Amino acid sequence: MLNIAVFASGRGSNFQSIIDSIKAGEIPAEIKILVSDTQTAGALKRAEREDIENIYINPDHFETKKDYEEELLSILEGVNTDLVVLAGYMRILSPLFVKHFKNRIVNIHPSLLPAFRGLDAQKQALDYGVKHSGCTVHFVDQGMDTGPIIMQAVVPVKQDDSADDLAARILKEEHRIYPESIKLIAEDKITIEGRKVKILKEEN
Ligand code: GRF
Fold first, then answer.
1. Atom 8 of ligand 1, nearest CA residue
2. Which residue in the list 109, 132, 138, 175 is annotated as catalytic?
3. Ligand 1 in contact with 110 (CB < 6 A)?
4. Which residues, including other chains, have CB under 8 Å from residue 105's CB and lie 6 or more apart?
5. Atom 2 (ligand 1): residue with closest C-alpha?
6. Is 132 considered catalytic here?
7. Nearest residue CA, atom 1 of ligand 1?
8. How much of the chain is in helix, strand and coil states, percent to nearest 5?
9. Is 14 near ligand 1, meaning CB less than 6 Å away?
10. 100-138: per-residue pLDDT in tens?
C-alpha cells in the first residue's frame, strides 16, 4: 500500500478525484495527510469531510523557507510518506526538499509541457493561439514544471474559448489522468530512465 501525502493550496478538485479513485478501490494507496499552506483552501474542507488527517501550515510563521520545509519533512516522515502529490500547491519546493523525495513527488500542470510552464498556463495557451492544449502529470525535479513526464491528455482549444472555458475542459482530463498516473506508481509499473518515464506493460 502506497502512503500518499497531498499538498494543496486551493479548491482541491484534483485531490478529490484521487480520493474518489482510492475509495472506488482503483488505486492501492492511502492518503495519510493533506497539507495546505492556505487556511481557506477548499482542499482542507474536503479532507475534513472525508476524514483525512489534514494540517494548515502558515509559511509566514517560519523565519526561512528551509525552516518551513523542515517542518513539512517532519510531518511527512511522521506518516511514513512514500509519495508526495502536489495538487494545486502554489509554491516551489526547494532543491533540498526535492532531493529528499527524489522521484517521489508528482505534480499536475494544466498545459502540454514543455509549453506554457508556470502560472496561468491556460491563458498563456490562449494568448499564444495554439489549437490544442491539455494537461501533464510529471515527476518534480529542481526546475519549474520540468520533470520527467508520466502522462498527458490533449484537448482542443476552441475559437471563442475564455481562459475559464479552456481551464474547465482541461480540468476534466486532469481528473482522469492524475488518478491513473498515481495508480501506475502505486502498482509499481513505472520506471524512470533519464528524462523518460516508462510504463511497464502487462504481459498476456
Ligand atoms: C489545476 O488546474 C492544476 O493543474 C494546477 O492547479 C489547479 C488545481 O486545481 N496545478 P484544484 O485545486 O485541484 O481544483
1. 88
2. 109
3. yes
4. 83, 84, 85, 86, 93, 98, 139, 140
5. 110
6. no
7. 88
8. 35, 25, 40
9. yes
10. 999 999 999 999 999 999 999 999 999 999 999 999 999
Which of the four pLDDT bands, split at 50, 70 and 90, describes residue 203?
A: low
Residues spanned by CATH 3.40.50.170 within the chain? 1-101, 108-204
Q: Write the single-letter amino acid at 145.
A: D
Query: What is the atom index within ligand 1 of the atom nearest the CA of 87?
Result: 13
CATH architecture label of 1-101: 3-Layer(aba) Sandwich (3.40)
Buried b (16+ CB within 10 A) or exposed e, 95-105: eebbebbebbb
Residue position matching grid coordinates 481557506: 40
Ligand 1 atom closest to the Cα of residue 43 is: 12
What superfamily does domain 108-204 belong to in CATH?
Formyl transferase, N-terminal domain (3.40.50.170)
